[in-house]
Amino acid sequence: MTTVSETPQKTMVISRRLRESIRLHLESIYPEKDSRALTRQVLEAYWGDGAVPRKRGRVAGNNMWSADNTYVITYGNSIIDGEHKPLSLLQDFVTENLKGVIKGVHILPYFPYTSDDGFAITDYRAVDSGLGGWEDIERIGREFRLMSDLVLNHCSSQSSWFNEFRMGHAPYKDFFFTASPEDDLSSVVRPRAHPLLRKVETADGEKHVWCTFSHDQVDFDFSNPEVLLEFLRIMRFHINHGVRTIRLDACAFIWKEVGTSCIHLPQTHEIIRLMRVLADYSEESIVLITETNVPNVENLSYFGNRNEAHMIYNFSLPPLIVHALMTGTSQFLNAWQMAMPPAQMGCAYFNFTASHDGIGLRPAESLLSDEAIGEMVETVKSFGGRVSMRQLSDGSMRPYEMNVSLFDALKGTVKGEDEHNIARFLCSQTIAMALEGIPAFYIHSLLATSNDYEGVEKSGHNRAINRHRWNYDALQEALADETTQHARVFNAMRELIGIRTRQPAFHPNATQFTLHLGEKLFGFWRQSVDRTQSIFAINNVTDETLEIPAMALNLIGGEQWIDLISGEAVGDAKINFAPYQCRWITNRA
Asked: Does the keyword Transferase apply (predicted)?
């Protein structure tokens, strides 16, 4: 064991294994720097406030989570009333309605910001005063597992850090990535269509800063170790305020090198591996989740070799589910699921169907044809949705995401609107609940919120269509009226989630195999880690009434099989499915 002096009064004991692991990662990231000196700085940045590391790092295993792990995704001001702090209202809502049903709460960026609904941060150490304060964040963190965003790639162009950069003040004068308009940037992967570089005047002359997402979101330069160290300090600061799941926002873009794609570069993965080491040696149970809205194979790379993210967003799931339910065929959903590897031990998929962003289409590339994507896009537009574009290296434009509330996206099929909106929507959620991984529900999916056209008009941004702010009194009134779409969906979701969280076969790492039941059904088998429970999750993705013989499933003889959702016993006869009906057939009630 070795030591690092934190203060004259306190000495931090560091294992040689931890120190050496950090040093090796730093050597890969910064080969020209003194890795031993940097190691000391990393230790002081992350543990220098009085926290101490574990003697040994946690070993990746399936005991990190259980079947009852679920999250709700929400903005801090998704619920307002014009009188109380939005974070206080949020706490009241989740405590009164979701306590014991949902285990985790992901509050989207709650820091001061200038644009992109929180993702252009001006101060990473403050809570937006319009939402509340750290005491409100900590209160939610005491009752639920709290997920928070670490927006690594960029900050607001109006932040104090960027102002210091423009004035040439250390250390911020080297905090932001710059390039020349003469550089070859043709290989850079772009998620947006605006010009990549923004010209700014600084004390050192004219510079062109790199802006991956918008000109108000200026990218950091992680080739400067001071940037990494500052974010490690911020990680620790957030952990000290109750954050236990850290979402690494847009992390695929954090390392740039002119002449490359500037996405998924080796240094990016090394930085995440370094953060994983720090998380595994933390006394607190810290989970890292990467947000990488990219094609499926690229997304899977962020598990690393059980040494990067604990969880990754299952980004291909939303467009594939929407396509299956719009077209009535599980062909592409089945093909994708059969090719998906099980998550490695100590890793898990984060299964979501909707979020504050749109339904990303990049993760569907190579999984859906251009024609299939085009048909889905046109259908969403006919249901009142919008489409955001991205620019390719040749200057052409391609659909990047569909902006629509998921409830409205599923109000019909490619044939048009019909009467199956709620059944179709609940089918989408039931699929996500049963798949291998940890399910997460956007608050506006739980509440069956429709497209917010007023929000789009006020903000001028397509994504506002699915970022409605509910008046708390109006929300409570809507949920109290059992005839509204909001109450019908919310009550059904609470019941389904309650059933789901009691099943060992729905453990995030429980065995999963895809069933071959034809294109009108999407089915898979889950088995608990101890092999005592099997669940056949079968979902009708059509507006037709279907039936299958019970012998199509491997129902072990001598056991009682029931559908957990309907409560019906399943025998040797045929199994019927109403339009969009889902069944969880199990041998253990």
From this structure: yes
